[in-house]
Write a structure and sequence with these properties.
mainly beta; 2 domains; four-stranded antiparallel beta sheet; 1 helix; T6SS_VgrG/RHS; RHS repeat-associated core domain-containing protein; Rhs_assc_core
Length: about 180
């Protein structure tokens, strides 16, 4: 009986039998020491350590080894709006399995409102908003998520000029590809 050998490794690496290293298209990775054996081909744009592995291979998708940008960032957007929405929710600490208490849509896209648990009990309002017409990011659709800003004196939700709740910092933000020409 012959043995089958699988040369594909984690995150798209290919095991090179001759060197015993994992090949990533542009350079070799040594799993025993947890680093590459040649410098990053994009130089310092990938970080100060030219031999380091990507910070998180589950969220940094870079099949050619040239991006250096986390998935969902402005320069490396998700392929779908849904994936970007879920990432913004994760960043903001809103459970992606939770059902919204309210939803609406305007010319900029969808908005979902949630009640998320707060430490010590109770809930606090949160919002997830699709941004397709953000003047500070033209032609870069994205989702923003976070806790709703509340007036400390009145307890009322602070609204923006478009009738949506303002989002408190820190907030989650994830970009996705513009399917209409972008």
């Amino acid at each position: 009986m012959s043995r089958f050998r699988q040369n594909l490794r984690y995150a798209g690496q290919y095991f090179d039998n001759e060197t015993g290293l994992h090949f990533n298209t542009y350079r070799y990775y040594a799993p025993e020491i947890g680093r590459f054996i040649t410098p990053d081909p994009i130089g310092l744009a990938g970080g100060l350590n030219l031999y380091q592995y990507a910070p998180n291979p589950m969220t940094w998708i870079d099949p050619w080894g040239l991006s250096g940008e986390p998935i969902g960032s402005e320069n490396n957007p998700f392929n779908s709006s849904g994936a970007a929405r879920r990432e913004a929710m994760r960043q903001a600490g809103i459970p992606i399995s939770q059902q919204p208490t309210n939803q609406s849509r305007n010319s900029s896209g969808w908005e979902y409102r949630y009640k998320v648990p707060k430490p010590g009990g109770g809930t606090i309002p949160a919002t997830v908003q699709q941004q397709t017409m953000d003047v500070s990011h033209p032609d870069q659709p994205h989702w923003e998520a976070g806790k709703v800003k509340v007036d400390p004196r009145t307890g009322e939700t602070r609204m923006n000029d478009y009738g949506r709740p303002k989002i408190a910092n820190p907030k989650g933000k994830a970009y996705y590809k513009n399917k209409c020409g972008g």
